[in-house]
């Protein structure tokens, strides 16, 4: 049997785990796109105080916890404007109509007693990593699927008849240790277990014995991996439920490998196991802005995003070996690319590779509105032989990065920038240290 473990409204639950006053009330976590990271002359130097969560501010658009006014309210002249978007909603708030993706101002009109807390992604990442480490002791074959989801394979470990009792015990232990509520789905296959979790929420355990009768009436959109495009294609052919989908084997076979894979997953006959090595965990950062056509400025922004993502990776002790860059343009065009880099991670390597990737994928003349950068395939999960040729140099660079990291942790992410992030020769940058590119 497979287990799918999913933290209930994770970001809100994480906040509740460190602030019990948020329990049992309509609460939400919100965020806002923070563009000040691109500011060529950042205002002063930020003091890093981990307990206040302030050091994540420039990275994860998170202000000091609980300071709603400071973080979400803009004042120009006498006018006040509440900015930002709801990212996670508690069940109490959901019941009152608050939804993920809703502007915070709208959510507050709907539910004036709602408490909105600025998000603190670094804290959530850490909590997630701790929970993963804990789960690994309880279920040897475990896979992290996302920041708040895990797959476990119980075969040879938990007796079939014991699965529910095991899941409930695990649920209790997780709550006791982390103060996090999880829901657990149990089924003969991974993807059906994930589907089952939806029926377990909130804070429940749901077991599927027979796949076919279970999936029969479930709308196709609810199946993991059926995106909007696929759902539309299926619906054009009159397929609306998973039961109907299983009666169209031929059609799905004509759609090639993705179709066949989907058919098998829906019936729970995919035979896919846990991939303990293939964690999907990644670190990402993105910014949306008004259209920019100036290539120099885009280059500069790409490098700044690289610095922020690199900072997080170092902070979390990860060695990512795949770097991804995506750009969205004004009229909806997109460009993306990724690189595998089997080297010791450091800011220098990251910036160089990302700059090259940018030159490779950027559409000439395109006006960009969004840049997203992510890092994945951490060596902890993907044991790989790192390049020996570059080893010495990388180690030196890593030491340099570590030194920079320490300074940033004390004085702020803006305390050190590299020359390629600056707009002009720095006459005005007195007092700010720079590390030249080597
Ligand atoms: Mg969840």
Describe the structure.
- By secondary structure, this protein is of the alpha+beta class.
- The protein has 3 domains: 12-120, MutS, DNA mismatch repair protein, domain I; 124-267, Alpha-Beta Plaits (2-Layer Sandwich), CATH 3.30.70.270; 282-435, Dna Ligase, domain 1, CATH 3.30.1490.100.
- The chain has 16 helices and 16 strands.
- The strands form 5 sheets. A 5-stranded mixed β-sheet has the order 7-8-1-9-10.
- Strand 3 (73-76) and strand 4 (79-82) form a beta hairpin.
- Helix 14 packs antiparallel against helix 15.
- The model is unreliable at 43-65 and 424-438 (pLDDT under 50).
- Residues 6-7, 10, 148 line the site of magnesium ion.
Brief write-up:
This protein has 438 residues and is α+β, with helices and mostly antiparallel strands. Helix content is 38%, strand content 21%.
Query: Cofactors and ligands present?
Result: magnesium ion
CATH topology of the largest domain: Dna Ligase, domain 1
State the CATH class of the largest domain. Alpha Beta
Quaternary organisation: single chain
Key phrases:
binds magnesium ion, 3 domains, disordered C terminus, Alpha-Beta Plaits, Dna Ligase, domain 1, alpha+beta, 438 residues, globular, five-stranded mixed beta sheet, MutS, DNA mismatch repair protein, domain I
